[in-house]
Amino acid sequence: MSAETEAAKPGVKRRDFLKVVGATTVATTAMGCSSERVEKLIPYLVSPDETVPGVSTYYSTTCRECSAGCGVVAETRDGRAIKLEGNPEHPLNRGALCAKGQSALQGLYNPDRYRTPMIRKNGRLVAATWDEALTLFRQKLTETRGAAANAVFINRHESGNFPSFLNTWLASQGMPAALSIDPDIDHAAIAANKQSYGVAWPRLNFSAARLIISFGADFLDGWGANVPQQLDFADARAKLETAPRLIYVGARRSLTGLNADHWINARPGSELAIVQMLGGSVTAQQASQASGVDVAALTELQREFAAARPAMVLAGGASPRGMELCLAANALNQSAGGGATIGSSSGINGFEGIDSPSQLRAVAQRMQAGAVPLLMTRGVNPAYTMPKSSGFAAAMAKVPFKVSFSSIPDETSALADLVLPDNHSLESWGDAEPVRGTLSLQQPVMDPIFDTRATADVLASLGTAGATYRDIMIGRFPGGATGLAAALPRGIASGSTSVLVPRVAPAPVVGQPGNGDFFLMVYPSPLLGTGDGANKPWLQELPDPVTKIAWQTVAEIHPSTAARLGVENGDHVTVETVAGRLTLPAYVYLGIRPDTVAVAAGRGHSEAAGRYARAGHNAFDLLPYSEDRSGATSYSFAKAKVTKDGGFSRLVTTEGSARQHGRGIGQAMTLAELAQPQAHESHGEYPGDASHEFLPGLRSPTANDAQGDLGDKGEESKEKGMYDPKHWSGMAKHRWAMTVDLARCTGCSACVTACYAENNIPTVGADWQGPKFMPDRTGFGANITRSREMAWLRLERYFEGGEDGSANFDTRFVPMLCQHCGNAPCEPVCPVYATYHAPDGLNVQVYNRCVGTRYCSNNCPYKVRYFNWFGYGEPARAQYAFPEPLNWQLNPDVTVRGKGVMEKCTFCVQRIRDAENRASLEKRGLEPDEFTTACAEACPSRAITFGDAADERWTVAKLAHDKRAYHVFEELNTFTAVVYLKKVNHPGAAATAAAATAPATSGGH
Amino acid sequence: MKSKRKWLAIPGFLALAAAAATLSAYAGASSSEGNAPAQPVAFPHTLHAGGNLKMNCIYCHYSAGKSPDPGLPAVGTCMGCHTTVAIDKPEIKKLAGFWQRKEPVPWVRVHKLPEYVHFPHMRHVNAGVSCQECHGQIQNMAVVYQQNSLNMGWCINCHIGRSNPQFKARYDCATCHY
Predict the structure, then answer these.
(1) Long-range pairs for A558-561 at CB < 8 Å and ≥24 separation?
(2) What's the pLDDT tens digit per position in A594-644?
(3) What number of C-beta contacts closer than 8 Å exist between A and B?
């Protein structure tokens, strides 16, 4: 060190100064970390076969976060699952995975999970042993034997063999078959599909359509199965010239609505009139009267629909006439699509056999009458998902004995007398039938974390067979144990299971909408569904793709309504219906009708549902209970009064502005512009710009940091060391780069969660993580109100047009991450050399050099650097983001950052190094497209491509020179490594004609 | 005014440099070099890796050639021989005790890099770097101790090929720090 000290004399050069300070930083940090603490190395007792310590093992299994049954590959390291990715061979999700699916890990490692069986003693649930619990369960089964026919088992709907296994067991106890419930599903659509197409969920062939009209069918938000629908939709849109145009009809622009080229803002519940108009049974005037949309717009729709063949018509039923709407839409689709867009082939087999929510209401009535002696629930939470007005939770008190098989506490299990916690699906055996004739196998990817047991095993042990469910599964599988073992690596096998037959829905209960100036729209959150996701911090922290709100429940109102009420973002409004009232912060949203107020469901659980689920408010409390003909709960039919309340809460939002202010971050072009021959214009040199020597690949100037090999060639050295492409290390031969196709991106945000999971990004929004002494900055999301979220990758959402409050606006979704600039503004301002440009094109952040000046973040034009303010990764701190056992999920390949350190997207450098290590072990070079980043891997619209832009064989090298390619803030000369491909808009014929006469304003920036 | 500021800045730099030098020296001294903790079972590398047996390191540290993690022998691996070999020795009795109680041996870690450093063993082993290059002459250590500082400068010396040109490797920060 002394040599460096000598160099630090007056007139010291930046680099010499850095050497001293930098070395000190390293040394002092090392002192704290490596010396004093005694660490143990715990070996295996007996070394398991097939595993190598420090190398991941992958298990194929099935995602159980929704009923679709996508295939996942669980990466495990030293016996712990650390990452979930889509199974590329699976017919549904084809390698992609949504945010919800990825968050299954936080269900597995949820700190609030039941750790043992629980028995209610003196009014409280207390921990018990399995022996005690099973003895009690057996005793209660015996006691209810006489009235067993009245016992009720409510099971979370799933396809596969488990339901029939369960029903066989129930039959052996003299009990009726279980109710198979999926609260997130659009039951009206399923019932209508069954009638129109003969299957619960036909395959939606977006690519075949020229025009798609969605009547509140939010196929990107959770209507059906997101991932396969998004894959198909993105493929259709990626056809550019021949891509289908999407028109969305509904009172609120959902994520699907924002992806539409045109929005017709019809009143809630009036969609049926427009479908009928397109079908010819109603005139445009009548439809206009019902929907509040002007006749001209409807006539134009009529004309466009008549001209576009084949067309696809989809409808979502959340209104009291939901099933009629879906049936009418299906009929229209059959005539306009000619079977090409939606045929009778089954799309998602997992949706077969779901019982209607009205069955739960009927159970509630029976419970209320004291007719149910025993209630068993598994994986469902009707005490929350059934609106208070349905009386379900209250009626549970009338049941003498309630058993819950829930693995995570929720409102329903909190009311139980006995909890026999199930294993998490990642700890259990099972199967699903996602596509007819194909089984998706489910296997445990790790040992159970807690003292839980798979419900299937518990029931098997109570039966006569005495076998485990795994034995039963092997017995049933063709080829037995060897056959199953051979099929498990792929995770899929051919085979079929008996399909459940849904019960006939009881006569619907029709609720009163009440009075009020507003239509109330309650909608299942695209991330939290009807509440399942609320106990997972990743999903709470992930901003809603539409509103960009996290950890909070808001009342969405139109700007003109807000002006009329005299409220701005965050001002409290009281929403009151016949069923209840909630005081919520207002969120002013352009994409909603002025006479409608919308509230997302899924948040606001009771204390019982754990530390994270309490955030926000429960929108179901506002719903008067009502059903449509199919038995589906009506989410948008009530009238509400909205009044200003004095209070104010800061919005927990990650959004700075919904407008681009001419910055051209998310750019778009129209079809007409796409057809024009001129290529992407690349700027030349700017005046005053220094001349550059460029590295191979995307233009990237040879780093200013370039130094001679040993740095001892004297100050005059012109040698560039590793920055020379001819250097022996070969590092500068690579230029890691990414393209993001905005024509594909739907804004779903699965990439963001993938990034959290891969890179150990802490969530910061839990109430205990925020400040304690700032009254307006406490509670859930407090850190986010101070812009202290840590999302290395965020999804920006911008609106273009509609400044006057009109419905005619365009949305741009832009995944924004570190651009890995070739000429990065963050690098020269770092006083300690913690951020610099690596020869392979990465903008590197060296955590152990960083002293937290935040100059880099100030100088970053993209605002993609995040400062760790509170040591979210340090267990001793109050702000710790990974309470045991959530920390089991942490990726051992990525440093968990400490307090006072700047962090940002690394382009998944650990994956680059891993691929290089593998290639080196196999004595070969990197193969094109052999690996990718976590965000690209998860992306269900295949918008993100990562690779080496300096190697022509990689896909990214071709895409980076696409006609639509642009760099964000290109004028800053940052030479970014992230290349965006412009979104392509499909304006209607009328808009195109108007644009031809007047100069276009919609394209460009 | 301007020149006054300049004169203040230079002593400031000097003070900083002095502080840095002191801290660096202190940090160097406090490296865990020489660390030789007592182990729950006094495993003699001298007998196994040295002496007459001269067992290959990879026999026990079985993943050093294929994983970032070198691997620790499972208790079962030890018991492969020690159900018959030297069963009367007190240390072997201790080992057998662990085996019978089905407990892993809680070895105390000797070589430890900070969490922000990634050291892939297999890259080094496959490049022909011998175990002794970093760990010292383990086969001669009755009690294993840390012979080298394992500080960054020590790593870099090898990566730039100063100690042995054939071992030169990338020395970019993000080779190890991420």
Answers:
(1) A558/A588, A558/A589, A558/A590, A558/A592, A558/A593, A558/A594, A558/A596, A558/A805, A559/A588, A559/A590, A559/A805, A560/A594, A560/A805, A561/A594, A561/A595, A561/A597, A561/A642
(2) 999 999 999 999 999 999 999 999 999 999 999 999 999 999 999 999 999
(3) 191
